Amino acid sequence: MKRLFASVLALSSLTLLPACGDDKDTDNKPDGGDPQSTAQDVSANITEDTTWKAGTTYTLKNYVFVEKGTLTIEAGVTVLGDQGSALVVTREAKLNAVGTAEKPIVFTSAQAAGTRTAGDWGGVVLLGKARINVAGGENTVEGFFATSGDVKTKYGGTDDAHNCGSLKYARIEFAGYELAEDNELNGLTVGGCGTATDIDYVQVHKGADDGVEMFGGTAGLKHVVITQTDDDGLDFDLGWRGKVQFLVVQQNATVGNRGIEASGNKNDNGAQPHTVPEIWNATFIGSGRPAGTAPAQEGLVFNTGAGGLLRNIIVANFADLAIDVDGTASAALWNAATPELSLQSTLFWSNKGDTLAIPNAPNPKKDASGAVTDPDVSKFVEAEKVLAVGLNNKVANPQLTAALNLEAPDFTPAAGSPALNPDNAATPGAGFDTSARFVGAVGTTNWLAGWTAFPKN
Predict the structure, then answer these.
(1) Where is the composition biased (Basic and acidic residues) (predicted)?
(2) Are 211 and 249 contacting, i.e. CB atoms less than 8 angstroms apart?
């Protein structure tokens, strides 16, 4: 409740007061600060090309909107977020935040190490002009209250190649919070960004809501690590059609919900464009906790007309379900002559403790009194459909080195693992790294080494 109150106060101040970022800052200094200083507070909106320099720590004091120009963040910079703060790059601006493996850019809580917790601040938001599947073609991004005439929080358009900028070799920690039910900021929120957007080597760690949420558009993800979020790992909806390769999701032991939650448009399950990303080489790891613990912990969930083409995937150790094709609209995408929902070359292991099969996920329909009128409205039997002959999906131990370790995880398969057997993998198609003939996000080379981190607090 304290976070919610602080967030509402911060947004209210932006709504009622003129943006202080309208003042020109020709020296590229946030708030006109000393460029030689090792610490600078940032409270003004950004309205022209601006650079945050290596050697300086920048603290976001509230919602900071990049309204125009490009915000460049140099390798090695640390950006701290106060409670009620977030960095929002609007669709009229760009982000150029490119770190290195040796000097990643770190967005983290302004609280002292040892006292940090999920939801300390609001995270990073990128907004663009690519198509989304809502009426009118644009929307207000989650995490903000819609305000008449305020375009800073809008996303969507007609340019599927739009460039929201670059975010590379970066960590986002202890972010995300809820303004109201179903209205949350995530670690990384991407709304309507296009194919020219470059999101590569990014970790989101200990977010209070989803790790990464993609709202429509066509932006892709590469080398993305999502660890110990309080809700879903990767959440996508509203017609997202991006390409993904090398994705790790690791759930925490007590709160984490779904590895993927995929939705179409909850108000119109047939809305175009359909939500159909293409995902290659991903590893989804549950916590291994006992089944039946609230909230339910599920690997891959597709609902409200969402699809996806998934290849070379590992789904392991989820407490309740491996995969749930939830509802008739998503089931129809699987059953279509040209499927828009399919899963191939996937290893399942120990989901709901089952090392021989995968659990079925019936979708019961209830009437107003709560009585079940249909035990399974989707008529989709996951235990049979997903393991059908010809899909190359199987139940087998991927033998990952230390995937359940929360402090020093290692998602590399051991020698002799079925994940390293190219017969178990499909060859990635155009636009992907075709040399990745293995199952899961990591082959024999651990690309997470050196730039990721897994702090408790």
Answers:
(1) 21-32
(2) yes
